[in-house]
Specification:
Strands 2, 4, 5, 6, 9, 10 and 11 form a 7-stranded mixed sheet that branches. The radius of gyration is 13 Å and the shape is globular. 0% of the residues lie in helices and 54% in strands. The chain has no helices and 11 strands.
Length: 117
């Protein structure tokens, strides 16, 4: 089991940057996959970026080249650096952990990101 707490959301203008943080209640070095998802009103929750325990990363096409996922194992924290934000990035962003052995999903409470044009 793991508890996840996101922070760092807010209101920014298009072209600006934000960094989201996700603090975990256990060692993230032991969690196979940590990820960020987002969900806009009336839409499904979609994967934004993921990072494995070995540091391999994966990005949605819509954010590749603009967003960077990283982690600090010593702080048990995962980050999402979001640059060149667009109005279509407006969503609630959720931190996700896929915990062994069956990769069960755990979610944070979400943090709102709003990008104005």
């Amino acid at each position: 089991q793991v508890q996840l707490v996101e922070s760092g959301g807010g209101l920014v203008q298009a072209g600006e940057s934000l960094r989201l943080s996700c603090a975990a209640s256990r060692k993230i070095s032991e969690i196979p996959i940590m990820a960020w998802y987002r969900q806009a009103p009336g839409k499904q929750r979609d994967l934004v970026a993921s990072i494995s325990s070995t540091g391999s990363t994966n990005y949605a096409d819509s954010v590749a080249g603009r967003f960077t996922i990283s982690k600090d194992n010593a702080k048990n924290t995962v980050y999402l650096q979001m640059n060149s934000l667009k109005p279509e990035d407006t969503s609630v962003y959720y931190c996700n952990a896929k915990v062994a052995p069956v990769l069960r999903d755990y979610w944070g409470q979400g943090t709102q990101v709003t990008v104005s044009s």
